[in-house]
Amino acid sequence: METVTSADGTVIAYDRHDGHAGTVILVGGAFGYRKLPTMVELAAALNEQYGLTVLNYDRRGRGDSTAASGGYDVEREIDDLAALVEVAGGSAMLFGWSSGAGLALRAAGSGRILGITKVVAFEPPFIVDDTGFVPAADLEPTLHQLVAADRRAETVRFYMTKAMGIPPTFVTVLRFTPFWKHLLATANSTPHDWAVMGEFVRGEPLRAADWAAVKAQTLVIAGGKSDLLLRKAARAIAAVLPDAEFQEVAKLRHLPKISLLAPPAGEFLTGAAENAN
């Protein structure tokens, strides 16, 4: 484990896998952190199979990264990525999963990290119409109250059902799996994910003007077996980004098999797909 200090003093922990084909920073989604088995496996695949240097980090308030006081602000998470890009030598690519993909895109469009060269956005959970699930407008105060009271199990259930639209029965089943401990450990960081995604999950079409500053070449990936909401979101963000392509991967789900997810991501990040053409 290595660490870097962000602009507000938050200590960001990360693991480095050295390679020779450029650097990619992995940005986890809600409940994700660097020791989550999926993140560990993805880091290894991109490093060992594609030669990438991989920085797999804990977003603030998760794992071994510290939690700063003063509320939840997407700009602070962009500061964290800026510090990691500096660690990478001033230039890096981003791979974001779920709300981590939303954070990666917002960082790329912030104008504050000029060294972001490419972005892979795997199923950013935008909600682009009101035909299905849309979170309640008053979700945020309740989420903050649960976190302040350290009611972690309730926070997990609330965020999954009310912010993510996951059926309550599925969340109940999760309580009896080994994965539940990971969810409890990261529950109090979920307001950061809401800060990233909240304004883009209102059931409204994405506006090209909000994403016009994302100059990095972007690959948006969706799974053929993922929920329709996520597949629509992936197509919608790809359509409004200045330089993006969309790829749907058969048999891939939101909780992915890395053997299906790593190839399109690795080929895009290393330029192997372009070279093959």
Automatic annotation (TrEMBL):
One of its GO terms (molecular function) is hydrolase activity. It comes from the Bacteria. InterPro entries: AB_hydrolase, AB_hydrolase_1, AB_hydrolase_fold. The keyword Hydrolase applies. Pfam families: Abhydrolase_6. SUPFAM superfamilies: alpha/beta-Hydrolases (SSF53474). Keywords: Hydrolase. Residues 24-256 form the AB hydrolase-1 domain. This is Alpha/beta fold hydrolase. The lineage of its organism: Bacteria, Bacillati, Actinomycetota, Actinomycetes, Mycobacteriales.
